[in-house]
Write a structure and sequence with these properties.
132 residues, alpha+beta, 4 helices, 38% helix
Amino acid sequence: MAKKNSPSPSDAKAEYSVEFVKMQSASTPFISFLEELNTQERAEILAYIEEFRVAKSSASPIADALTKYLGNGILELRVRHTNRISRSLFFYFAGKRIIFTHGFIKKTRTTPRVELEKAERYRSEFLRQNIS
C-alpha cells in the first residue's frame, strides 16, 4: 500500500506548463511585449522559455545566468540578444504552472522597482481570476 504523502507516478512525470497573465481588459501584457520586438528577438525569447520549461520538467539544472529570483515570488528569465538584453518576469503557480507576467528591455544593471511592482500587480490579477 502506497504512503499517502508519496507522489503518484503521474505526478512525478507531470510537465511544467507555460501561461501568460491575461488582464480583465482581455489584454495579455507578455504578448504585447513580444509584439514590440523584432522577429529574431521574439523567437529567441520563446526558445528560452521552452528550454526553461523542459529543464524544469525534467529536473535538469538551470543555468544561473538564465533565471534570477527577484523577491516576493517573482523571478526573471534573462535573454541576451545581439545588442540588448530582455527580461521576462514570471512566477510559479499550483500544478507546475509557470506564469509569465510581462517583459521589458533591460536598460540598467538592476531590475527597476517599477517592473517588479508591475509583475506583482499582474500576479494579483491572475490570482483574482484563478482562485475562487
